Amino acid sequence: MNEEMKKVKEHFKNDHFATSIGVKIMDLNKGYCKAKMEIEPRHLNSVGTVQGGAMFTLADLAFAVASNAHGNVALAISTNMSFVKAVSSGTLYAEAREESINPKISTYHVKVTNENDDLIAIFQGMAYRKRDLISDFFKK
């Protein structure tokens, strides 16, 4: 991982909600991010499966990192998530891949899988790309 991507990874440690529930960035590049979350009892809903909001946060962070890694501030303007399989233990992975990009809008597809590579959820996101640079928000 080059220095620029290391700074982006460090910057996203300031996503306090995602980090507080245990989401960790594993790999990133421009338009790409892989993140993970070890399932803990705090992630489970009342029927013992991972709560949708926890899964959404994992996918949303991967989307945010992938879309901001180009250098411009990118903010979600539309997201959609479909849950295809319930899970209650193990590790979840979210892999965000850029599908399209132009000066103002970019789109991403995020697959959420478990440690067996089973498809757990599908997330789609669209980001608005601002002129502001993400580096202006890096901690010095």
How does the SSE layout of this entry go?
Elements: H1 3-11, H2 16-20, E1 24-29, E2 32-38, H3 52-68, E3 72-83, E4 91-101, E5 105-114, E6 119-133
Antiparallel strand pairs: 1-2, 2-4, 3-6, 4-5, 5-6
List keywords for this structure.
single chain, 6 strands, 22% helix, 6-stranded antiparallel sheet, 3 helices, alpha+beta
What do these coordinates show?
22% of the residues lie in helices and 44% in strands. It is of the alpha+beta class. Strands 1-2-4-5-6-3 form a six-stranded antiparallel beta sheet, with helices on one face. A hairpin with a 3-residue loop joins strand 4 and strand 5. The radius of gyration is 15 Å and the shape is globular. The relative contact order is 0.21.
Concise structural overview:
The chain is built from three helices and six strands; from the N terminus they run ααββαββββ.
The H-and-E topology, N to C, reads as HHEEHEEEE
Low-confidence stretches: none
Sheet with most strands: strand arrangement: 1-2-4-5-6-3
Structural class designation:
alpha+beta
- From the spread of the alpha carbons, the general shape counts as globular
Largest sheet: 6 strands, antiparallel
Give the helix tally.
Answer: 3
Strand content: 35-45%
Rg calc:
15 Å
Q: Distance between the terminal alpha carbons, to the nearest Å?
A: 19 Å
Mean pLDDT rating: 96
Residue share in helix: 10-25%
How many β-strand runs? Answer: 6
